[in-house]
Amino acid sequence: MPADRPNILLITSDQQHWSTLGVLNPRISTPNLDRLAREGTRFDRAYCPNPVCSPSRASIITGMYPSTHGCWTIGVKLAEDVPTVGERFQELGYATSLIGKAHFQPLASTPEQTSLECHPTLRDLDFWRRFHGPWYGFGHVEIARMHADEHLVGQHYAIWMEEQGLVNWRDHFQPYPPDPDAPRREHVWDLPEEYHYTRWTADRAIAAIERAVANGTPFFTWASFHDPHPPYLVPQPWASMYDPADMEPGTLMPGELDSMPRHFGLTQQVAPDFSAWHESGFGNHGFRSHLVDEAQLRRDMAVYYGMVSFMDHHIGRILDALDRLGVAGETLVVFTTDHGHFLGQHGLFYKGAFHYEDLIRLPFIVRGPGKVPAGRVSTALQSLVDLAPTFLDAAGAPVPGAMQGVSQWAVWQGQAERAREWAMVENRHQPTRLSLRTLVTDRYKITVYRGSDEGELFDLQQDPQELRNRWADPACAGVKTAMLHRFVQAEIEREPTRFARIAGA
Predict the structure, then answer these.
(1) Which of 16, 195, 353, 488 has the most CB atoms lying inside 10 A of its own CB?
(2) Among 463, 422, 452, which residue's Cα sits nearest to residue 439?
């Protein structure tokens, strides 16, 4: 891999549990991600800066935390004047492209927060035929917003389906305007596999790479896959690839939520009252009943695994394209996800304000032939805010002071043990009533809630399953004090410095 200007290929999934890799889990087949791990380094302690799509994705391209770049939750726009890593790469002469899911903008538009990712623009195919960027530092974009058969389908993906001959694509998706009486598909999708958005993402990412190679231009390409984000729905044969009887869902241990903040216990009620946490009217992810029939959970989990394996198949096509084009040795490849997912762990499902490892820890693999050690597993802490500065460092470019992430390039190359001592995770769905932050170190994890005496303290070494919250345990008072001090230090350390001081006054 050239030392000066390597190609950068970022591959992400959406809402993927950190353990859903074949190299870690014998119950799932991911041969292409396993290949990536064999040929590169797998980082076992990677974290998201926020366990919600928009803020986490915005952090990937800005190198900033959500509280700094401004997209602090879903339904909030990432302002287009916030500097991005793509802009830097364009200045370096790179062809920059984003293919797949973006989700930088809300499902509504106002004069203060205009959005291309909302109705009716989302379904205006004439607009998307004309628009391919530039957008957020990407010179070329092809995007789609929905998951599975959601009515949010449109944009470049719908155009591609029509070009592939599926003129009746609307028949395979939920109707728009939404119809609450429309039948819901479950598990097996009648959409033919060759028209699926996972295929589309791989096809168009390969096309973007091919254009750059043909032009002799280094590329920064983000292949942003939509799955395995629910709904649990995928075409055959992937829908039946796994037997529900072979699944091992997570469980809720008796009494484990007794020491947790109040909203955890409410999830185990049939009709919980979360009204105290809903002040804006838009609600919060996960603030509902999490009681699910075990048979349903096993079937959901089997399809979730099928969605991962389907995505892995098409990730393999992208990796094969790098080989075919003769640029694999010149390309730094990173695979990760935007945040994790619950499959019954602690009695929880999907996501929410529950900062267990299942939700905030990520799969994370780096391959860079000749630079990144092959077949290595590292426990060095990683964060998605580190991607932008690390990519720039790998390309020999200076890292802007506005970026709060740290360069992991020396760590990825095996030249340094670590680049950070902690990872910070923010979560702020509402302006005040739900605001929490979690600090993770090698051994401990502490979560603080704004305006509340409640909190969480876990010893990840002695209690890796996070079954015993030690926040109120007198025996851990010293550890709690030390972690709270470390928390304050981390808040100070992550302050950005946009400009260097150049004069005495």
Answers:
(1) 16
(2) 422
Residue 143's pLDDT is what? Answer: 98
How far apart are the C-alpha atoms of 122 and 115, rounded to whole Å? 9
Q: Please say whether the beta carbons of 71 and 117 come within 8 A.
A: no
DSSP assigned state of 264? H
Kindly report the CA angle at 329 between 30 and 366, in degrees rounded to 5?
45
Q: Are 61 and 390 in contact (CB under 8 A)?
A: no
Q: How high is the pLDDT of residue 432?
A: 66
Under 8 Å between Cβ of 21 and 34: yes
**By the 8 A CB rule, do 372 and 41 touch?**
yes
pTM exceeds 0.90, yes or no: yes
141/146 Cα distance (integer angstroms): 16
Rounded to 5 degrees, φ, ψ at 324 are: -60, -35
Contacts of 374 (CB under 8 A, 6+ apart): 38, 39, 40, 41, 367
The predicted pLDDT at position 434 comes to 85
Positions of the chain with pLDDT lower than 50, given as ranges: none
Burial call 239-255: b when 16+ CB within 10 Å, e when fewer: bebbebeebebbebeee
* pLDDT of res. 280: 74
Distance CA 78, CA 68 (A): 11
For 152, 289, 374, 390, the CA distances from 489, given in Å and listed in that order, are: 42, 37, 35, 23
Distances (CA, A) of 334 to 246, 273, 363, 485: 30, 41, 10, 33
Q: Which two tokens stand for residue 495?
A: 């302050």
Is 101:148 a contact under the CB 8 Å cutoff? no
Angle between helices 294-324 and 197-214 (to 10 degrees): 20
SS (H, E, C) 137-163: CECEEEECCCCCCCCCCCHHHHHHHHH
Cα–Cα distance measured from residue 253 to residue 138, given in angstroms and rounded to the nearest whole number: 46
Among residues 193, 197, 196, the alpha carbon closest in space to that of 224 is found at 197
List C-alpha distances in Å: 34 to 154, 340, 352. 33, 19, 29
Which one-letter amino acid corresponds to residue 152? L
Q: What pLDDT does residue 341 have?
A: 98
CB-based contact 219:209 (threshold 8 Å)? yes
User: Which one, of 428, 434, 389, 435, lies nearest residue 408 by Cα?
Assistant: 389
Q: How far apart are CA 417 and CA 420, in angstroms?
A: 10
Give me the pLDDT at residue 282, please. Answer: 81
- Helices 197-214, 155-163: inter-axial angle, 10-degree rounding: 90
Helix/strand/coil percent split, the chain, to 5 = 30, 15, 50
